[in-house]
């Protein structure tokens, strides 16, 4: 049966299936596989892209190739930090940003799935959904802070006490995308909260 | 402000009986569904629109005070 806005029971099922699939993929590729890598069961995680204090070197051959074309090519401030034989603790530090990000994503997908299930009853304006949106906004806010901070922090822990600690500075670059997302979801949570209250007000109105 | 229990009573059943009118007939006259009138009749309504009240009073030839009363404390 198709609803007023072209939404049907099949749409409910498709939405739930899509969210369930996304959650399963996040759980497998974002949590299970990195954890197996940490434990050394699968190909262990041993590399991390880091920011360096000095510019990385561009191969001489490439520099020579650009010379006759009125161009120069210089190195950037990014490099790959590779650990030859990382132990479990180091592998955990390498995997930690991805694990935390995936856990937050899984939490968001789980809450969206719970919200999608309220569509079955034909009523999304319930207090639980307003609360769920508040938690999703909190998760987006946490990701806004943790996504840049965790890699920088764990990198520092990995190179602490080695000559590389001077070459790899503590660099954190915040982007506004997650913050904007968190604010938008917070606004949506408020819309839901007011919608729920308005519905409660009009319930029983004759 | 927390919601408070109301003590408003609706005397629709009495007025209908006095006028020998059924709920379906009243629904047809005032343009309100039988379900909603039933909610009103059984004291399950939480609020009533002035437009509904006006239509009910016109159809039943009464005043709001005949239709509604407030129980004493």
From TrEMBL, chain B:
Q: Where does the record place the HTH cro/C1-type domain?
A: 12-67
Pfam families the record matches: HTH_26
SMART domains for this protein: HTH_XRE
Q: Which residues form a coiled coil?
A: none
Q: What is this protein called?
A: Helix-turn-helix transcriptional regulator
Organism equals Streptomyces similanensis
């Amino acid at each position: 049966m198709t609803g007023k806005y072209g939404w049907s029971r099949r749409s409910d099922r498709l939405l739930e299936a899509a969210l369930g699939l996304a959650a399963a993929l996040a759980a497998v590729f974002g949590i299970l596989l990195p954890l197996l890598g940490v434990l050394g069961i699968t190909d262990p995680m041993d590399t991390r892209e880091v920011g360096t204090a000095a510019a990385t070197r561009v191969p001489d051959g490439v520099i020579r190739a650009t010379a006759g074309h009125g161009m120069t090519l210089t190195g950037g401030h990014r490099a790959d930090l590779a650990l030859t034989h990382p132990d479990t603790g180091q592998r955990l530090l390498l995997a930690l940003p991805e694990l935390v990000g995936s856990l937050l994503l899984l939490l968001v997908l789980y809450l969206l799935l719970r919200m999608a299930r309220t569509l079955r009853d034909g009523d999304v304006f319930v207090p639980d959904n307003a609360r769920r949106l508040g938690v999703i906004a909190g998760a987006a806010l946490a990701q806004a802070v943790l996504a840049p901070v965790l890699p920088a922090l764990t990198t520092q822990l990995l190179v602490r006490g080695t000559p590389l600690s001077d070459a790899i500075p503590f660099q954190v670059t915040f982007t506004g995308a997650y913050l904007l997302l968190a604010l938008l979801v917070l606004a949506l949570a408020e819309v839901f909260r007011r919608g729920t209250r308005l519905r409660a007000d009009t319930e029983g109105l004759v | 402000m927390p919601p408070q229990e109301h003590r408003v009573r609706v005397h629709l059943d009495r007025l209908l009986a006095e006028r020998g009118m059924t709920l379906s007939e009243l629904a047809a006259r005032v343009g309100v569904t039988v379900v909603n009138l039933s909610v009103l009749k059984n004291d399950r309504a939480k609020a009533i629109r002035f437009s509904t009240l006006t239509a009910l009073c016109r159809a039943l030839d009464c005043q709001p005070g005949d239709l509604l009363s407030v129980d004493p404390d």
